[in-house]
Design a protein that fits this description.
By secondary structure, this protein is of the alpha+beta class. It is 28% helix and 47% strand. It has 2 domains: 1-49; 55-212. This is Late embryogenesis abundant protein LEA-2 subgroup domain-containing protein.
């Protein structure tokens, strides 16, 4: 009796089991086909356009003010920076949107600035020139100690300027959204004396910036 009931149960479940297996097999086949097609399209687009990451270089800088008030540890600063962006792509033009720059000292944020949108054709080199000025408190004694040390060592200060932008890619007549780009420029800049306003800024060594997404 038990054997007969088991046989009947197996026969009743078999259609459901076959249906489930068929649906699962179909879904796996569709998923495999979609992944293969997406990979093939990505490979064709890569071979067709050969995309390259932009290159960024801080080419000039002027630190006309960079002083720390005693006791209150308020940092007064005026920083001008010129960053060259090079688009190495021969078939992709770039639109930089929502461009913003922010300076950091000893890991602490200083001023930020909005920059105009930028269009960069294939193979072109363009400049971004953020002007960052204001005052900010240095939190903690470590940052203030770092300032005093660098001020005593020739008044050459280590700052970090970060630039962010949303990028759109122009592929012939098609424009598609691209990644959000971060440009990180760690620079060492000698402060210009307040009495030397008529003189050119101290020599600045161009510095390669890191580009990441």
């Amino acid at each position: 009796m038990g054997k007969a009931a088991s046989t009947v149960s197996s026969l009743l479940c078999c259609p459901c089991r076959c249906l489930f297996c068929g649906v699962l097999s179909c879904l796996l086949s569709v998923l495999t086909c979609v992944l293969f097609s997406a990979g093939l399209v990505a490979l064709i687009l890569y071979l067709l356009f050969r995309p390259h990451i932009i290159r960024a270089t801080a080419v000039s800088a002027d630190l006309s003010a960079f002083t720390l008030t005693p006791r209150t540890w308020i940092l007064l600063y005026n920083l001008s920076l010129a960053v060259q962006l090079h688009n190495p792509n021969s078939r992709i033009a770039l639109h930089y949107l929502d461009v913003a720059a922010r300076a950091y000292y000893e890991g602490q944020p200083l001023a930020d600035a909005r920059l105009p949108d930028l269009f960069q054709g294939t193979g072109e080199t363009s400049s971004l020139k953020p002007q960052l000025a204001g005052d900010a408190p240095l939190v903690g004694g470590v940052a203030a100690a770092g300032f005093r040390r660098e001020a005593a060592e020739g008044a050459t200060f280590s700052l970090d300027v970060k630039i962010s932008a949303h990028i759109k890619l122009s592929l012939w007549v098609i424009t598609v959204p691209g990644p959000k780009t971060q440009i990180d420029c760690p620079v060492r800049i000698q402060r210009r004396n307040a009495t030397d306003d008529d003189r050119p800024p101290p020599e600045f060594h161009p510095t390669e910036c890191r580009v990441w997404f």
